[in-house]
Amino acid sequence: MAEQGGEEDVRDPAADETEGDALRELVRSGAAEPVEKLPSSADLAKQDKQQDIGLKGRYATVLLWLMGAQLAVTNGVFIAYAWVGRDWDVDRGVMQAWLTATVVQVIGVVLVVTRYLFPRRDE
Questions:
Q1: For the chain, where are the E strands, in sequence order?
Q2: Which residue has the higher pLDDT, 31 or 59?
Q3: pLDDT tens, position by position, 39-51
């Protein structure tokens, strides 16, 4: 037995028996499963793949909606600039940088998402 602080750690046999009874009662009630009934590695791998597919779908949907919203706002700003742009005193370089950054961001997000969702199979 291990010693802590100069005293020996002694387990009470009655406490061990009580813990065993409590575990058996949990198994009987269905709140706990014995080790033999745990899912196999194949079942866990299948469940992991199903969760991964669901997560990919939700992630792609949200990203597409956000990207669409961003493009709608950007297009709205450019339309407003075209109609009332003379009142704005915005340098052309700033507008070009903004448009370029938006396009690069959209292409980057699409590439990252599609490469994650559809990995190369030949590797």
A1: 3-4, 7-8
A2: 59
A3: 788 988 899 889 8
DSSP secondary-structure letter at 6? T
User: Is 3 inside any structural domain?
Assistant: no
Cα pseudo-dihedral 72, 74, 76, 80, rounded to 10: 180
Whole-number Å distance between alpha carbons of 28 and 17: 17
Q: How many residues are given for the chain?
A: 123
Structural domain including 89 reads 12-117
Question: Whole-angstrom Cα distance, residue 66 to residue 94?
Answer: 23
Residue 24 and residue 16 in contact, taking contact as beta carbons nearer than 8 Å: no
Residue 43 lies in a domain: yes
Does the pTM exceed 0.70?
A: no
What are the phi and psi torsion angles at 7 (to 5°)? -110, 145
Interhelix angle 41-84/92-117, rounded to 10 degrees, is 160
DSSP character for 9?
-
- How does pLDDT run across 78-113, given as a tens digit for each residue? 778 777 766 667 778 877 888 888 888 888 887 887
Token duo for residue 57: 């779908």
In a domain, 5, yes or no: no
